[in-house]
Amino acid sequence: MRLTDIAEGAVSGLVARYVRRAILLALIGACVLVALYYVNSAASLALAAQYGPLYARLIMAGIYAVAGLIAFTVFYTTRNRALTQQGASSGATGLLSSPRNMQIAMLVEAVMLGYTLARKSGKGIL
Which domain of life is it from (predicted)? Predict the structure, then answer.
């Protein structure tokens, strides 16, 4: 079994797992959207009975506007924090600053060197 066959088997298994997880996540998202639709409908009916149809729709619009502003604020604050951390550790030195990343890089280098040496002809040995 060649090294490329092993790598292909590992990558194809990993890709298949991520595809299955993406399909499951899409199904969960669709169910959440349907549930949100029914909650919205029920809340509109309840508010319409209490305050009238116009005010019910205005209240629901206000709730969704506040939820959207909260989501935008979370997105904006996490985006800026990630950019400042990335800017502080730019380049290859930032990527290899952690011991775990350095170990992974050394393992990959050792595998590549072993693969290169295994491909050379063995005429000079023994």
Answer: Bacteria
